[in-house]
Amino acid sequence: MDFSDYVPSVSVDCVVFGFHQNQLKVLMLKLKHLNLWALPGGFIENNQSATIAADKVLKDRTGLEGIYQQQFHVFTDPERSQTSHIEQLISNDVLDKDVLGWFKNRFISIGYYALVEYSKVNKPEPDFLSEKCQWVSLDELPELMLDHEEIIKRAYVRLNQDLYQKPVGINLLPEKFTMPELQALYETILQKKIDRRNFRRKILSLNIIIDTKEKRMGSNNRAPIVYKFDKTKYHQVLKEGYHINLF
Amino acid sequence: MDFSDYVPSVSVDCVVFGFHQNQLKVLMLKLKHLNLWALPGGFIENNQSATIAADKVLKDRTGLEGIYQQQFHVFTDPERSQTSHIEQLISNDVLDKDVLGWFKNRFISIGYYALVEYSKVNKPEPDFLSEKCQWVSLDELPELMLDHEEIIKRAYVRLNQDLYQKPVGINLLPEKFTMPELQALYETILQKKIDRRNFRRKILSLNIIIDTKEKRMGSNNRAPIVYKFDKTKYHQVLKEGYHINLF
DNA sequence: TACTATTGTGTAATAATGACACAATAGGAT
DNA sequence: ATCCTATTGTGTCATTATTACACAATAGTA
């Protein structure tokens, strides 16, 4: 295994959020033969930007390209670099012992959060350290490697804040969705109940969703209207941000 | 010059904002014998976090400790690493040519913005590359090294956004200040005029400033009330953020 | 004492928000 | 068919926040 084409000391970690069954999920890797989980991550090639490196991580794990990503924090605590899990992987013959030299370095990790439509990820792929790649509920996290729990917490805080400045639905929901589904997403992320009618009014006032004139049938109650995002207006709003009042 | 105690590939750059004469200023360094300016920056020692490294940069340039700092972005474009300015400094005998090896590396730079009370910075100190350290108006930036102009722009955008989520006055204004002064600060950062009376109402409703019962005398008009921040409430609001409405 | 410049204070019209009630309807039960 | 259930679509009213103003107060100066 050759690490010489990577930028030293720097890594990238991705917190991939998905929304399923009214829960926020994170894509996680289970280390081979260990009861320890990790975030999808990687290193930066010498001629790559970190964004491109994160794109590659996302592509490799989810199979999808062009996933929405947002750099949110860099983790630089010198104590965050530990190698006990690598040493265990080596003693389990998962890794060759000559990789230890690379991992013994201190790493500063650039955190990205990514938003992806849950159902689009058909086959999450583990990497060379892991035996499983799967969705885990944000509120049922298993034991995590290094500071990955802190990274997830911070990603979530940032996602929460970002929700007040820009829309996120287009990345987390399928192309067509109903108002109750959109509301469930917001309630899940914000962790609070929102009045149905006030939510609708607010969302519609943003002018970023369009009534498709379809209805979502199949439930034994009034069928909700199916909406889709107005991509033009959505991206316009995303770029400008909400100018939520101060003055 | 020995760089062996620094983390490879990673640097720190600080955008230090100050407020003076109704203008937002940035602390800049002028490279020795060159007509080129740079942000205060540095490297991370092997046992330091980036935050501590930024603290040191801020201390070394301003003489002040405990300056408010906020990590805002990491700059990772592989094209951002250039050495032409270093080579010029070497050919001008400012630097020894054996430093070139270190600077030839690609650097990923962690951007911090810092807020400081302008008048507290008595004697800005240049570093080993520079002959001057001084305040420069944000809208009159000289020619800057590398991608430092982009770094400043992004810092400013972030400061702008942050203003909608948390108060900033305590870091940029002197301990005692008047309502018109606070308003001028907001108008400068947001680059828009705010109605005097509405501004006052909004600020007072946050409950983070206290009437000192003093007046600022000396001008031939009605003397404005002198306020100070209620540090307890200020930091409480800072921590929680404004929960500016969405729902 | 009057004048100037600017500050402190108040108020009315408009818009946004929060807290509700009721009609509409898809699917299933009778 | 008709009724029932669960849930959605729509509307309304009281309250609060915002916008756009007018006028009185006052420190210094003429």
Automatic annotation (TrEMBL), chains A, B:
Residues 5-159 form the Nudix hydrolase domain. SUPFAM superfamilies: Nudix, Winged helix' DNA-binding domain. It comes from the Bacteria. Pfam families: NUDIX, WHD_NrtR. It comes from Marivirga sericea. InterPro entries: NUDIX_hydrolase-like_dom_sf, NUDIX_hydrolase_dom, WH-like_DNA-bd_sf, WH_DNA-bd_sf, WHD_NrtR. This is ADP-ribose pyrophosphatase YjhB, NUDIX family.
